[in-house]
Amino acid sequence: MNDTNFSQNTVASIRQKVSVQELIYCGIFTALIAVGAFIKVPVPVVPFTLQFLFTTLAGLLLGGKLGAFSVIAYLVLGLAGLPIFSEGGGIWYVFKPSFGYLIGFCIATYVTGTMAERMKFTIKNLLAANFTGLLIVYAAGMVYYYIICNFVIDTPIGVWPLFLYCFLLAVPGDICLCILCAFFVKRIKPLLQLNR
Length: 196
What we know:
By secondary structure, the chain is mostly helical. It has helices at 2-36, 51-62, 64-79, 99-118, 123-152, 159-168, 171-195, and strands spanning 40-41, 48-49. The two termini are 29 Å apart.
């Protein structure tokens, strides 16, 4: 009887440690996403940052749910007023046309992480997950940008300028990040699993 209680307590203790470890990983990625917002490459209209790099890594390394949780925590902190978005913070940020990309990061992180968890762990599959996430980010970002500009803040933008500035000029860097993430995660994830 005592042995049974001891083993149940041990299992509960291990689960608690794992959940604390996961929360620490989530916190680290939330901080990295915030840092990524301030590493900018000047591109007209929508600044190119390293947020996509860290949100993709969060999905691939933490899984869909925990990765998305990291991004949600980042969004909540920024909307609460911490100046951790690329152009500040606060609830007013939802009226910035580029806020759609942040929403896209959250969805894409979940999808990328879930795909990576369910597929065989190969470079090809990691690339497929990353590029799926990339399409989600740009789809959400561009649709939101168009709606906010044309129907909320009354600064109309046409479809072609939207496609040029919000996709063509920014996507080459993110394509490189997709490839970088796939090769990096292929090497590093087995080591992290050993530590768990």
